[in-house]
Amino acid sequence: MGYSPERKAAVLKRMLPPNNLAVRRLSQEEGISEATLHKWRAQARNKGQLLPNADAGPEGWASRDKFAAVLETAALNDADLAEYCRQRGLFAEQIKTWRVACEQANDWERRSTARMSQATREEKKRIKVLERELARKDRALAETAALLVLRKKAAAIWGGDEDA
């Protein structure tokens, strides 16, 4: 059964704030299967429309929804931003926080690389210390083994006590 674009848009609008109807409830009220509603929401999201899950508050929004909200509000002044937030049940501070997160999203690689190189340097130092310690212990073991061999030879030559 095909649905008109107008009906589809009206149902999708009910998923948006301030209504924020969950798919299950909307399915029961409209008589449309949940699978169809999920499909419609996915299609709308793919077209760039902001359709967060109704049961997730603004902090439970997916990254793509937060990013879409940041894009939608990028050119708004304070009054328009306040109106946008009221319509969607958000706070301007949330949008600002999301904007900062979006701006810093590509810096993670640089910070991660710096952390990795620092960790690599520390690991190299640690490996060097362990190798020096291992070499020292190898020399001590070789010296002890040489002393034991000399003791046995001396005992064999002069006939002393081998176990002493």
Protein topology:
Layout: H1 5-15, H2 23-30, H3 34-46, H4 63-73, H5 78-88, H6 92-103, H7 108-158
Helix pairs in contact: 4-6
Quick tags:
164 residues, single chain, mainly alpha
Explain this structure to me?
This protein is mostly helical. The chain has 7 helices and no strands. The chain has helices spanning 5-15, 23-30, 34-46, 63-73, 78-88, 92-103, 108-158. Helix 4 (63-73) packs across helix 6. The mean pLDDT is 82.
In a nutshell, what does this entry contain?
The protein is mainly α and 164 residues long.
Distance between the termini: 99 Å
Q: Could you spell the SSE succession in H and E letters?
A: HHHHHHH
Q: What is the SS-derived class?
A: mainly alpha
Give the helix tally: 7
Number of DSSP strands?
Answer: 0
Task: Give the percentage of residues in beta strands.
Answer: under 5%
What integer is the average pLDDT?
A: 82
- State the share of residues found in helices, binned by percent: over 70%
Radius of gyration based on Cα positions: 35 Å
Shape: elongated
Largest sheet: none
Low-confidence stretches: none
